[in-house]
Amino acid sequence: MTADSVADVKREILVRHLEAWAPAALHRARRATYAHGYADAGPDLAEAALRVFAEQSDLVRGRELTMVAVGEQTTEVGERLAAVQRDADAVAGLSVHTVAGGTDASLAVALTAAGAARVPLLGFLDATAAGVPPAAATVAAIAAGRPAEAIIVLRAEGFAPEEYRAGLHAAGFPLVAAVELAVDERPGEVLIFATAAGKSLEGFKDTLWAVDEYAGVRYRDPGDPERHLIDISLNPHPGPLRRELLSHLAEVGEATVTELRTFALTETVYRAADATRVLHALLTAGSVTRRPEHGRLGGDVVIAAG
Prior knowledge:
The chain is α/β, with parallel strands linked by helices.
């Protein structure tokens, strides 16, 4: 894997999501918090995140936006973040707290000190360098936001999608989606998005497919048994989604179009709109049937395995 190219994709996904999240969070509430764990392992990402906020100075004024960056060794991170604040001429309403210590040991405490409970909260936890996933208590601390979102990055090797999804559900995130960033057949890095809002998940999926390609980085659906690599595109190759929809229908027998769109959104790397496109193709090919047989492919139409 090309580490730099994967890092570029992670950074663009994070930046694009923050550019959408910050205005929405500060429109919803007067205060919002962004938590950046494992900051010392990827200081470039922490710096990029703060630059997003600094560039939205008009939005932050009159509101309170707090960034909490936690890492074992925070000297470099602290210096970088301080430099961004100086360049931004200390944007009013934007505060940054750099906390030394392990993310699992310190993040929850830091969020409590920042008064992050029950305000819009987004956590970014890139645990690839740590080699182990964030502790359940750490994820639960982020889930205490209202609303809360989390972006978690893990090594793909040994990643168990359903097991980890269940853990995030238990922590307080009912909607979870994951994508593997890879350059070849070797395991890459799994980027996971967790939220309680379907609209946020849809927005994240749109961001995912809108990023630029970097040095051959492609996506892989963690639920695809064939581990097919997918080019990053606004119109992604439908092969893995076709297989997963057919497998799901073989298991459940039948489902409405709305249920299949939700399945694609929450259980695959694809968007709900991609499911509609694939269902039209499956019906044309005779691979599935529909009830009623004619008319618009509305949400209440029942699709059954062929």
